[in-house]
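Case study 2.
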Amino acid sequence: MSAINGVSIPDEPRLKFLDPSRLISAALSSKPSGDLLSLLSELDPWSLSAADQLNLVAALDRHSSWISALAAQALAALAGPIPNESADAVDPFQVVDPVRDEVAAALRIAASTAAGRIAVARDLDSRLVGTARLLASGQLSYAQALVMHSECERLTDEQAQIVEAAVLGQSVHQTPGQLRRSVRRAAVRVSPLTVADEVEEEYARREVRMYPAGAVMVTIEATLPAPDGIAVWNALTACGLADSPAGDRRTLDHKRADALTSWAFDAADKPGLPTHHRRRRLETHVAIDLPTLLGLADNPGELDGFGPIPAQVARCLAADSTWRRLVTDPVDGHLLDYGSTVYSPPAPLREYLLARDQTCRFPGCSQPAIRTDLDHTEAFSRDNKGGATSASNLHCLCRRHHRLKTHHQWKVTAEPGARLRWTSPRGRSYKTDPPPVVESRAPLDLSRATPVEASFALRLVAGGCRLRS
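Prediction:
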């Protein structure tokens, strides 16, 4: 027999002796614990009254905060103190905090997300211990803890603790937005910003991002200083209105979007733009299988940097493109092998590797292959005692992860099928496989083809196709 907040609970079976309302009430008023969470997980929310359902959500949210506190504490112990960083370091690929990459691989999250979690965990462990205490007791949410961290980031340890003490009492009754305003006011009182500092801090936020927005669309989002943003907006509006022939049914939004695309294509034609692996970075690469290209199937194509696109879109892009034929495995869509015995990969091998790997081959990294280094899995040697310059011994690595492998005790071995086996400094193992150039395909169906199309398809059926536009 055990008891939680005065509620007696027989050991076996526990739940049928317990009134759900009393259990939920205990979970709302007691310190979060594994026992309480286990009991709450056994409740059927569909059988509860509306009031108990709401209270159950609140009780589970308190335990979510408790688990977040435990995870932050474990992460702080793993990451250790902030490593020293040279004040004059200007190399953007410098591996200053290598633990972030191991955390990213273990949790299957982006390295930038891992870095953010580590920063929060370190703050809760050292500077914001009051916040950590409220988080562990379930009185503060992780979103509120993030606000405390982000708004105190520019402050010294002493200043951060003064701000925390000033706002913590009211923080449990505030939303994250309300708490942000409170913390910001307290931070400005403790460490006033000059106008120059504020402007410089704001200007440092400028960036352009791109992310998928549906099956065939992306969103490009720009954060700019207000004068620059207004200038860009006015220019796009003017260019869109200038390109409005009679009968044009596009909206003004459409015209701005088309004007931006036209500007990009015009800029891409300028000489002197940078190249990497002897290829211009501004090429667009689309992979499509032969049956889909001929209209005999509707398998999705692959757009580099985006992912699958509908067959009709891939065929549309194929109408005006430069082609490169790549032989692929008809079952899994992977590229076949290619070999060489010189240190620097020749152009055909280099092109093959970029097409095969598509991104950096470190676990979870999505840096496009065109921006990576070509790295020998086993160090190259001309005396047959080391690795060869071949597709089976080469892979794409972004500069950061190339340095992580070389200088920070990450080990990598090649396995059949171009698979890489990574072993972290702490002994965890991860595998990465090159993605298929196109999705696995069904057997070729020529029933919809004309005799000319069928003859052409049968001659080329062993090959996949890749186009550049």
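The first strand starts at residue 2 and ends at 4.
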